[in-house]
Amino acid sequence: MSWTLCTSGAAIAKAGANAGTAASSAALLQAWSDEAEGSICMKIRKDVVTNYAGVPTLIQNCLADLASDLIAMKIINYSLNSYTRAEAQTMLNVLKDNSDMIIKDLREKQYQEFS
Questions:
Q1: Rounded to 10 degrees, what is the CA torsion of 77, 81, 83, 84?
Q2: Could you give the angle at the alpha carbon of 28 between the alpha carbons of 68 and 64, nearest 5°?
Q3: Assessment of whether the complete model's pTM goes beyond 0.85
Q4: Phi-psi bin for 20: left (phi > 0), alpha (psi -120 to 50), beta?
Q5: What's the pLDDT tens digit per position in 52-95?
């Protein structure tokens, strides 16, 4: 299941230059990728991981954005001492706002009819 929806590089980039040791741990990143993919499928009530090939490209891009946001939040939380308090809070807020918006949009009926 790991890395179906996004790349590790995308998640690390969103976590920023101060990502710390979590960004270099393949095992942590893989676990967080699996968690993010499972969470996305549950939240939008559609298995987009198993049926990824049937998902339109534009929706795949949204899913990549969402998955990398969720993983980046975990990287930041794991490495909080690598950021100033304001940096971490701002980054987490931006990622959370974006991920909430994408989940809301993907739950809408018109997007549930893809694939």
A1: 120
A2: 15
A3: yes
A4: left
A5: 999 999 999 999 999 999 999 999 999 999 999 999 999 999 99
